Automatic annotation (TrEMBL):
Protein name: Molecular chaperone Hsp20
InterPro entries: A-crystallin/Hsp20_dom, HSP20-like_chaperone, Small_HSP
Residue ranges annotated for the SHSP domain, each copy included: 30-144
Organism in which the protein naturally occurs: Dokdonia donghaensis DSW-1
Family statement drawn from the similarity comment of this UniProt entry: Belongs to the small heat shock protein (HSP20) family.
């Protein structure tokens, strides 16, 4: 399985990151420079498993799309509080985060049987292998 990393947030060297993300007025800042979640890919005899670490999200926040053999997992979250138009802001911070990860699936994956679940901050995508791609048990071949 080939991993193609696509991250919508730019990555800055740590010196620049500290300089640009410092809030000089004493508040807090949210850093989204590395907003792409980590992924574990596990190969078993009968399937691949993709585990995406994404705590704090809900299953409704994910989009999983399959286009031919390209599996794309993405999420976009906007947290904007409803505020009366008459309110005056001294400071207002918006939270916005998004990510997109794409994976080229091998031909051995049975794309019709892909399933996904989200439990305890981990999105688990099961990619079953086709019957002919699974490891076959050893057998004794009789000579005739």
């Amino acid at each position: 399985m080939t991993l193609v990393r696509k991250n919508t947030a730019p990555y800055l060297p740590s010196v620049f990151e500290e300089l640009l993300n410092t809030d000089w007025l004493g508040g807090r800042t949210n850093t989204f420079t590395n907003a792409t979640p980590s992924v574990n890919i596990i190969e078993k005899d009968d399937a691949f498993e993709l585990h995406v670490a994404a705590p704090g999200l809900k299953k409704e926040d994910f989009n999983i799309n399959l286009d031919n053999d390209l599996l794309t997992i993405s999420s976009e979250i906007k947290n904007e509080e409803d505020v009366k138009e008459t309110a005056k802001f001294t400071r207002r911070e918006f939270n916005y985060a998004s990510f997109k990860r794409s994976f080229n699936l091998p031909e051995s994956v049975d794309t019709a049987k892909i399933t996904a679940s989200y439990t305890d901050g981990v999105l688990a995508v099961s990619l079953p292998k086709r019957e002919e791609a699974q490891v076959q048990p050893s057998r004794l071949i009789e000579i005739q």
